[in-house]
Design goal:
There is one protein chain. The protein is an alpha/beta fold. The protein has one domain: P-loop containing nucleotide triphosphate hydrolases (Rossmann fold, 3-Layer(aba) Sandwich). It contains six helices and ten strands, in the order βββαββαβαααβαβββ. The strands form two sheets. The protein has a six-stranded mixed β-sheet, sandwiched between helices. A hairpin with a 2-residue loop joins β4 and β5. The longest helix has 16 residues.
């Protein structure tokens, strides 16, 4: 489903070039639950952003079902991402003036579609355990509840791949366990999961672990 081939991202700092991601290769198939671990600044988020088509690599390829997504133009890649990839950003990413339900429905309305996503969005909120909060606003939610909304939002267009950047960051152990069980159940239904995490206790929920260090990616046996 997702294949990264010798992916690079080069930046310059103080006139010197350095690689945030250096020759990284990775393969994710349907139903996989892949975790990437590594210290802060090792290139994990940059790798996820290139995998989702949010930033262009300096070299290498990102294939999604045999489509090299970085050969698409801006509109094509945005539509492709909207249809195929759900992305849970690190931290709080909800729109404060929208209700929980409206936040979940946002990806649906970014491009013209037939029908109303509200019923499916409500079912996703029920599944994530916060159906009763559908008409609340982000300021009324806890950190764990906002993370559940973000996960529901990432699923509203029924993506083939869910990418999550530190989905349990700053959550208590009980909420972390609930979120990880939810992600595991999503993978069990066939949606591929690719997450970045610094919490080693969560690795048991996945089936494949990569480690990242100074831009280098390696599979952890």
């Amino acid at each position: 489903m997702l294949e990264l081939r010798e992916l690079n991202k080069e930046y310059k700092r103080g006139g010197r070039a350095f690689y945030a991601v250096n020759n990284a290769s990775l393969f994710v198939k349907a139903g996989d639950f892949v975790s990437i671990i590594g210290r802060s600044g090792s290139g994990k988020s940059t790798l996820l952003n290139m995998s989702a088509g949010l930033i262009k690599p300096s070299g290498g390829n990102v294939f999604f079902n045999d489509t090299d997504i970085h050969t698409l133009n801006d509109r094509e890649i945005s539509l492709f991402r909207n249809e195929k990839i759900g992305y849970v950003l690190q931290g709080q990413s909800l729109l404060s003036n929208f209700t929980v339900l409206e936040n979940v429905c946002i990806p649906w309305f970014l491009y013209k579609r037939e029908g109303d996503p509200s019923s499916y969005a409500l079912s996703l909120l029920e599944r994530t355990g916060i159906g009763k909060l559908a008409f609340s606003y982000p300021k009324e939610l806890s950190g764990g509840e906002m993370r559940r909304v973000a996960i529901a939002r990432s699923l509203v267009n029924k993506p083939s791949l869910l990418i999550a950047d530190e989905p349990t960051n700053d959550l208590d152990s009980e909420t972390t366990e609930e979120i990880m069980k939810l992600l595991r159940s999503i993978a069990d239904e066939g949606t591929a999961i690719l997450i970045v995490t610094h919490e080693l206790d969560t690795l048991s929920y996945g089936n494949k672990v990569y480690a990242m260090d100074n831009g280098k990616l390696s599979i952890r046996e």
